[in-house]
Write a structure and sequence with these properties.
Elements lengths: L3 H6 L4 H6 L5 H9 L19 H14 L4 H19 L9 H13 L4 H21 L27 H9 L5 H16 L3 H5 L6 E2 L4 E4 L2 E3 L2 E3 L8 E4 L2 H13 L21 H14 L8 H13 L4 H8 L4 H4 L12 H8 L10
Antiparallel strand pairs: 1-2, 2-5, 3-4
Length: 360
Amino acid sequence: MHSDSTRQRHGGTDRQARDHSPEAQPAFGRQIARLDISAPVVRAAGGNLGLTVAEAGCRYIEHKKTIGLKRSTLSDYESFLRVHLAPFFADHRLETIDVELIEGFMAAKRAQGRARKSIINYLGLLSAIYNHACRRGWCTRNPVADVEKPRHEHRDPDIRFLNLPELEALLRAVPDTPLGQTEQLLYLAAALSGMRRGELLALRWTDVDWQAGLLRVRRTYSRGEFDTPKSRRSSRAIPLARRLHEALWHHRQQSVYREELDLVFSHPATGDVLDPSKLYKRFKAAAARAGLRPIRFHDLRHTFGTRMAAAGAPLRAVQEWMGHSDYRTTSLYADYAPDLSHAAHWAARAFDLDGSAAGL
């Protein structure tokens, strides 16, 4: 919600302040749903085009639907527009929004406790809406381009992962039930393949290449829907460790759902996809029973990355196996590469105080 100074600075009224509040957001959602994006765009008085951010945003998202943007991304865009952009900018027309007002939007979101990355995402959508509007002739400039964006938060360089005793403790803490056995194997697969949770939930038996010893990532499960992986690099092949190969083979022999198109980690009673939220709660409970420090499911993925790097696998290969689009993400595991284990030896030789090393 705006502070008093922000409302005064932008000439906002009490009505606008109420419109920008969380209580007003459902009403904006209904307003957006009623927009007729098929109607032609008309010019308002003074020559400015009459589209609001909500109207232009709906047209932009509809355009993205027609060119096949991923459903998960469209869902994010719709949420950003409905919950954040439309309520704040309300009835402001595209041509009337300036840098100062956008900075007010950023300040309001910071006051609401939104993360910098989230604010950057909102601004990214607003900028994309403006660029689309400029191409369509609905406005003449993109004011977001002149806004100084929030700096990205610095990531904690320490990554969390499980060592082998911790992984074994986690697996032992899973209940010995049909569902528990499935989820125990899923945890093992996450740690030994580095696959994301959604990728594991979407894995089918046809994706297991027994002869080549590979797992092929071809789809993911997110927000109740199967979809293609998040990026081009996310479609990949991962080496199948012997332990995981044997565990998957045994699981298939025991499972009722063993056809090629059946899910590998399906619910044992129904064959349906596991509920991600319930899966995560059971994972946290198992970790607590195992006496582990607080961990996330994603830390199983880090377990794969650190173990592979420690085994001497080239980081470029680790990048491919994990589906990282940016090598800088993979470089987090560089500290675990085995060549660094001899660093103390080389330092001792370089700075040997008796002068016997390095020609001193």
